[in-house]
Amino acid sequence: MYRTLLLIMLAFGPALAAPGLLKGNTPSLSAPSIVSQARALAVSDRMEGIAVLEDYLAQGKDEELMAVVTLEAGEQRRLHGDLETARAHFQAVTKRWPEHPAKEAALLGMALVAYDSGHASGNSMATLRMVPDELATPTMNADRYRILALQAEQEGAGTQELKLLVEQAYLGASDDPEVLARVDRSLAHMAPESERPDVVQPLADMSDAADEAALQRAQGSLRAGDMAQAKRHAEELLQNYPESDYIRAAEWVVMRADANNPYNPKTVGVLLPLSGKYAPAGGQLRDTLEMGFEGTGTKLVVLDTGGTGEGAKAQLKELVLKHGVAVIIGPLTQDEAYPAVAEAQAAAVPLVSLSQSPDQTDVGNWIFQTALTPEQQVMGLLKEMMDQRMARRFAVMAPDTPYGRAAKDTFVEQVMKRGGTVDTILFYDPTQKDFRKDARKLPKDLPYDAIFIPDSYSRVAMIASSLAYEEYAIGSFSPGRGTPVPLIGLNGWHNERLAATGGKYVERCVFVDAFYAEDPAVGSFVRLYENRFNRTPGVLDATAYDTAKLVAVAVASQAPDRGAFRAALNGAALSNPTSGGNQFDGQREVARTLHAFTIEDGEMRRIGDMGAVSYTHLRAHETGRNL
User: Fold this and answer.
1) Measuring CA to CA, which residue among 105, 173, 148 is closest to residue 5?
2) How far, in Å, CA of 362 to CA of 376, rounded?
3) What is the DSSP string of 243-288?
4) Which of 362, 465, 531, 543 would you call most buried, defined as having the most Cβ atoms within 10 angstroms of its Cβ?
5) From the CB of residue 277, how many other CB atoms can be counted at a distance below 10 Å?
6) Is the model's pTM score more than 0.70?
7) Residues with Cβ < 8 Å from 390, sequence gap 6 or more?
C-alpha cells in the first residue's frame, strides 16, 4: 500500500510529496510564539525548552493554546529521551482535546514513542504513514520519514522513492541539530552530499558552524546515554578543529563518557578555600551552607580549593567525574572564580558562584551568581544618591586594584546613564598608610555632591582623615569654607567600627548592603545562626544561606539530568530571603533590593529608619538657605 502511495506522489510531483495532502484540505497546525521560543531554546539546551513549555502548562494561561503547547512538550520530552513523560503529554492531547487538529499529531507522537522504546506495531507503522505532515511538528516528520526510508530500503524501494523520503526527513530535521545528526547517521548513505537540498544540508557540513554542531552531537549523545557515540563525536571535533573554541568542552565530553557520566540529583558539590589565608572565611561559609541544607535530604561534598584557580579546577573535576554532583556551589575568591566558571561552562555543569567578581555569568548559561555584586551595589547607591537626594556631580577615589577599577567603571557608567557627571577620578595605592598625598590631588574648587570610595571601612576612615587634614569639607567637618561633602561607598563600609574610626569625617555618609541583622524580617535566620555559631551573621553568611535554600528547591525537583537541574534552578524562588533577593534574574544573578545606611551623631543607622531626605533639603539645612 505504501509503495502505491509513493507512486501517486511521484506521479503528481513534489506538491503531493506530503502524505497529508492525499487527505484533501487538512488544516495546518501553526506554531504559536511560546512553541517557537521553546524550539529555539531546545537547539542549545533541550531542558530549557521543556521548562518553558511545562511552566506555561502549569500556569494554564491560554486554553486555546494548551493543546498545541502540550503536544510540543510531549515532542521535546520524546527528543530528550523521557519517553514516559512524552507519552503522558501525547495521551493528554488525545483525551482533553479529541476534536483539535493536534490530536492527529499526538497519535503520531505516540507511534514514534513506540518506535523509540522498541515496541512498535503494525498500527504504529500505519500511523507514521497516514498523519498529515502539516499537522505534525517538523521533528516528528523528520523521525517518521527516517523510519519510513529505512523501511522502504529494506523492502527494495527504487532510488527515486528513497530520495523523496530522505529529503523529507532532512527537511523536518533542518532546525534541530540533534535530530539532524540522527537523520544524517541513518540516511546519509542513501543521499550523497551533492544530491541533498541546500536548505537541509547538515550542520556538520557548514564550515562556519561545524565545530559547534559536532559538539552538540557529542553532548546530545552523552545526554542520551550513548557514551561510545559521545566520545566518538567529541574526538572528531578534537581532531578536525584543533583551534575551535569548543576544545575544552569536547575534552569534557570525553572525560564524562570515560567516567560513564555519573549524575546524582541529590548530591551538591561545594568549592571553598579551607586552607590558606582565606580558610577562616571558607570554613564559616561551609558551616552556613550546611545549616541551609539541613532537612532537605541533600548530600554535600565539600572540597578545599586552597584559594587558587588550579585548586578550584582540580576539585571541580573530582566533583563531576567521581561524585557526579548535580550542581556546584562556589568558589569564593576572584583567583578561584574565573578558572572555575570557565571549567564548569565547558563541563556543562551548573555552578553557583559565591564570588563578588564581576561578569562571571557572561561566561555562559551554566553559570549562576548569588554574591552581592559591585554592579548591584552601585545601582542601589545611586538610587539613593541620585533619585532620592538629587546628587549629580561626583568624584571618585578608588584603590588601584581590579575590584577598585571595576567599581569605578560601573559607577561612572551608571552616573552617566542617569544624567550625572564624574568630574574627578583618582586611584591610590591601597597598601600605604598615609593618604594625604592622594588627598591633595582632589580639587577643592569643584562643587561635588559626593565622593565615591569603593573600599573597606578601615581604609575609608584613613582616607577621610587625610581629606580633612588637607582642609577638605567632608562629613560634618568644615574648615571654614564650603559645604561639607558626604562620602559614599559600598558594603565594605558596613561595620560598626566605621563611626568610631571615621568620626565626624564620615558623618552623613551613605553606603549600601544587602543584609541588615537588625531587620525584623530576617530575625529568625539571625537567631538560628547566633544560637548555632555564637556569632552574628554578615552578608556573606546571608547570601550563602539563601544560596543553599535556592539550590535545595532545585534538588527537590528531582531533575533527571543537569540540563533539567539548570532549568529548575532558573525557576527556583524563596518566600523569605535573608539577603534581599528571592530568585535569579535573566542574567542568572540574584536581583536584590538593598538597604542604605548612614552615620548620624556617631551611630550607624539604616536610612529607611530615619526617613528618606532629599539632597536639596540636606544642602538647605547645612547652609541655612531655602532652596
Assistant:
1) 148
2) 16
3) T-TTHHHHHHHHHHHHTT---EEEEEEEEE--SSTTHHHHHHHHHH
4) 543
5) 9
6) no
7) 614, 615, 616
